[in-house]
Amino acid sequence: MPKEKRGILNIVKPKTPILFTYSGDIWSSDSDDSDYKEESTSRSSQLCTVKPVTQLPQQNRNARKRKVDSRIVKKTCANTVKEISHNQWDSWGLTIPPEILLKLFKCVIADEGALPFLPRASRVCRLWHQVATDNSMWQYIDLSYGWIKKKSAVLTWLCQHRLQQVRELNLTGWKSEVNASLPDIWKHCLLLRSINLSYCKYSSEALQAIAEHCHNLCDLDLSYYESDGKFLASFKSLLKKSGKQFLCLKLAGCGVNLTSVLTAIIMFCPKLQLLDISNPKPQAGYSSINIDQFQENCTKLKIFRAANTRLSHTRSQVQSDWIGFTHLEEFSIAGKSHNDHGEFMFRFLRGSSNLNLLDIRQCSFSMDSVLFLPSHIISHLYISRCNIKELCLEQIIATWAKSLVHLDISWNVLSEDCMKQNLCTLAAEGLF
Question: What are the angstrom distances between the C-alpha of 366 and each of 184, 346, 419?
Fold first, then answer.
């Protein structure tokens, strides 16, 4: 006989499952009751079957705990930052006077420039947006560094909404994109005083429109332009109408005949202070300039730059009582184009007693003519690759040793004794 199965307290287990027993007696089955109804087997098995509880490994439980904790921390931090931004930062932005914020922005613009500071500051809050988009903040704008996409539509929008009070505008490198926006610039930027259109491509009609709209323009940079064949006629027409107001003209990399350009400048620009005709294109050829007429009409000239420019003066008689450019401070004719024994430099600089910078690098004329210049306060002297003689160098250094700040004598064949003596002379005057 099979052995009977016994449970707790050595009690024989019943064949049919029961809930519990009492005093070893088996309770009667519920089937004996009058109101008993038999349930389905599936229902009874569902009630009796208990799914075992599977315990998660310790590593999984820790990961789940960390995940829940991180969610709580993120939610708490987000609520805290949101509360701080609403309670502190917004209140500070609303309480600071706009006049003070305007002055702070101007200090930043003076050091860092208007771009990209103003577009970024306008996104902080409503007050900053109001101050940053004020037209008075957009007076000196440089769009040459790529802070804004170089597209005509962008420039047109800026002219209509931001640049109504702009004074200086730099559009270097915009090329053909600037041509379509030039009419909007002339129309909306009525206070414009300086514009840089170097390395840009524009039509002659857009250039002529300057005289009709920009009555305050006094600084024009057309260096390395890409224009059509009507540039010379358009430029002459511009100078004829608005030449009296120009103070600075920059025409570096000019591709037309410089003789015609210089003649127009001398005739129509009496207030000219800066002229740059450096590095002309090969098709410009040799250019002649009437120095006597230039000195008579443009008496306020301060800076003249003509590096690598093949210039020659007209053979007119020199007047003994001629005053010359009395306000001239900078003179540069660096290059290999001057071989007239220094006559051009001497005639140009007669009467220029305030000359501070002299750049004659790679000039092949005799350096003895430098000693006859009227200025005794030259602080920057560039005479490299000039085949200067040792005696002439000693006389030049002795003449301007007290005022020299920068001296360039590189690529000149000089002896060691000459260099030592000149260095001692400069050291005695306190240059080092």
Answer: 52, 12, 20
Phi (first) and psi of residue 359, to 5 degrees? -120, 105
Nearest to 411 by CA among 340, 362, 339, 367: 362
CA distance 147 to 202: 22
Non-local (6+) Cβ contacts of 215 within 8 A are 190, 242, 245
pTM score, whole prediction: 0.74
For residues 373-404, one letter each, b for 16 or more C-beta atoms within 10 angstroms of the residue's C-beta and e for the rest, the string is bebeebebbbbbbbebbbebbeebbebbbebb
Q: Using DSSP, state whether 167 is helix, strand or coil.
A: coil
Residue 202, CB half-sphere, CA atoms under 13 Å: how many?
A: 30
Per-residue pLDDT tens digits of the chain, which is 432 residues long = 555 666 666 666 666 665 555 455 545 555 555 555 555 444 444 444 444 545 545 555 555 555 555 555 455 555 544 544 444 555 666 678 888 889 989 999 988 888 889 988 888 888 888 899 888 889 999 998 877 888 889 999 999 988 989 999 999 988 888 888 888 898 899 899 999 999 988 888 888 888 788 888 999 999 998 766 788 888 998 999 889 999 999 999 888 888 889 999 999 999 999 999 999 887 767 788 888 889 989 999 999 999 998 888 876 565 555 678 999 999 999 986 555 667 888 889 988 999 999 999 988 888 888 888 888 899 999 999 988 889 999 999 999 988 999 999 999 998 999 999 888 888 887 665
How far apart CA 158 and CA 113 sit, in angstroms, is 16
- DSSP assignment of 263-274 equals HHHHHH-TT--E
Q: Are 276 and 260 in contact (CB under 8 A)?
A: no
Contacts of 131 (CB under 8 A, 6+ apart): 98, 101, 102, 105, 121, 137
Pairing between strand 140-142 and 168-170?
Answer: parallel
Phi, psi of 254 (to 5 degrees): -65, 140
- Dihedral of CA atoms 158, 164, 165, 169 in degrees, nearest 10, equals 40
> Distance between CA 214 and CA 194 in Å, rounded?
10
